[in-house]
Amino acid sequence: MSNDYPESDDAELVQEDRLWQGNGWTARVIKNEDDDGWAVAMIKDGEPEPALVGPWTMGRDKKNPKPLDVNAFNTLVKTANEVIRRHEQQLHAQLHKNVTVGTDEGPVKVCLDITPDEDDPYATLTAFDSYGEELAKVRVAPTFKLTATSASAWIENGFRRP
């Protein structure tokens, strides 16, 4: 029977008491610098910093850490993925804002999308009618504060750059 899939890298993964790899993650049990206990750092493959560092359980001897195992590792992966997801949601919320304001022609949704470029950060202000048709689009400073008042002023000013 032929196998169309490449050989798995699982054989190269380390799965030891204090170091466990799999599912794109590495869990490393480390000495807690703040006290006598232990911590576990979850590092996503290819990332320089841990996505999550948390306390780790002491073993039965009350001196050494509890060994990592597949169940603990899977729980840690789930938790670390959730931390990353929440961080991404928070970042998205900071970079993409919108308000809807009432006008004589109906509601207008105004969106502010910030592009955090290291060399040239900027933002785009876009207005849409109630059917989702774009009414106007202008480039603004990334520090532009989108509020119902600033959106209304932009609309009343004929969508000229604020």
TrEMBL record:
This is Uncharacterized protein. It comes from Duganella rivi. The lineage of its organism: Bacteria, Pseudomonadati, Pseudomonadota, Betaproteobacteria, Burkholderiales.
